[in-house]
Amino acid sequence: MEYFLSLLTAAAAPPPPSPAPASTAPHNSTQMAFPVFTRIRLAQPTDVPQIHKLIHQMAIFERLTHLFTATEASLSSVLFKSPPFQSVTIFILEVSSQPFIIEEEEDLINNSPPLYQPKFQTANLDHPIAEDPEIETFKSLNSGDNVVIGGFALFFPNYSPFLGKPGFYVENLFVRERYRRNGLGKMLLIAVVKKAVEMGCGRVEWVVLDWNVNAIKFYEEMGAQIQHDYRFCRLTGDAFQAYASTN
């Protein structure tokens, strides 16, 4: 049986009620908008320290720190071992107060275009990047001094026998708290979906925690369908290890 898990409600105990969602109304005349430049690019091995910190912040947000055991070493041992889009792939979203230098990148060894050309856009924040209290922690090591990592998407290929086509499963989609409600998460998800369409995939899937009503609304507004007929199953810990000795 094929498990169609697109936006499946995750099996997690609901936390205490979340604060009322922040207003998404346009900035009024008394609010200042701070234009920023954004870039979505493929992650590189030198991004691992920041990726690890992003995953930890995500675990805090989802009240799942008791499940967080990843280290920089464990991430490095798995990531970047296969070409992008053939295994685990990460998009990094960077923000800068200065325009990025847009260059047509190419593989100098094979004299061919890259597997992913970075995507550039602009956005408006309600605060300047310079006020980011974690600006040093998340300063991009692969870019200029004015570039800060604001979020990431981690995904990998899967396959639908019903469609007879491959797809992408988005394991993580996260934007740091300082940069939320500014359209950056939507930029990341669209980047994943556009790549899937370009590669001839049939769909993109992910899960959402059942208490995260803001995220559910956001995904539905993007056209995603909540699959209520399925339950998310996981075999892990002792129950998982017990099969090592099973005939």
Automatic annotation (TrEMBL):
Family matches, as InterPro entries: Acyl_CoA_acyltransferase, Diverse_Substrate_AcTransf, GNAT_dom
Keyword Protein biosynthesis among record annotations: no
N-acetyltransferase domain segment(s): 90-247
GO molecular function: N-acetyltransferase activity
Matching CDD domains: NAT_SF
UniProt keyword terms in alphabetical order: Acyltransferase, Transferase
Keyword Transferase: yes
Protein's name according to its UniProt entry: N-acetyltransferase domain-containing protein
Species: Cannabis sativa (Hemp)
